[in-house]
Amino acid sequence: EDFLTLIFKAMMKDTLNSSHPVSSAVQSSEQIEEMFDTLSYIKGASLLLMLKHYLTKDVFQAGIEVYLHNHDYRTAQSDDLWDSMNEITNGTLDVKKMMKTWIAHKGFPLVTVVRKGKIISVQQEKFLYRVEPENWTSDASYLWHIPLTYITNKCNFTHCINAYLLDQKSGM
């Protein structure tokens, strides 16, 4: 419950146009200090939870083990974690490509689901709670690779979770 409260506080900050990506190039020590704030840590933790849920606990755990083994006693970059996850998924999912859309963009997407009979369509757009005119920039090009999971009425709710990766502005 406490973690959810932290996530929602971080999301509120991340909805502002003055937010920043989890990962970006820095030019000065001041920028480094700005990057390591609570937003970065909480959003980063949330993204790892999202990835764990999408990949499944066992696959995620195996990716972490590969990462720790490959980089023990050495420095690492964020791409190294994604590369380790890619090793485990054997090319069935480009984890690096997916996660780059989350760590390189500020903010998060709003996903709209529309049902027309048996047809379900989804679309994404950048969510902004409040536009700050002095900091506003167009984010029309933002595109996230959003892992969606769902169940249908043909499932027993424990063993039949379906997954879909929304990697375009809209899909079915």
Automatic annotation (TrEMBL):
A Pfam match: Peptidase_M1
InterPro entries reported for this sequence: Peptidase_M1_aminopeptidases, Peptidase_M1_dom, Peptidase_M4/M1_CTD_sf
Gene Ontology terms for molecular function: metalloaminopeptidase activity; peptide binding; zinc ion binding
Domain Peptidase M1 membrane alanine aminopeptidase residue range list: 7-102
GO biological process: peptide catabolic process; proteolysis; regulation of blood pressure
One GO term describing the cellular component: cytoplasm
Keyword 4Fe-4S applies: no
Alphabetical keyword list: Aminopeptidase, Hydrolase, Protease
Protein name: LCAP aminopeptidase
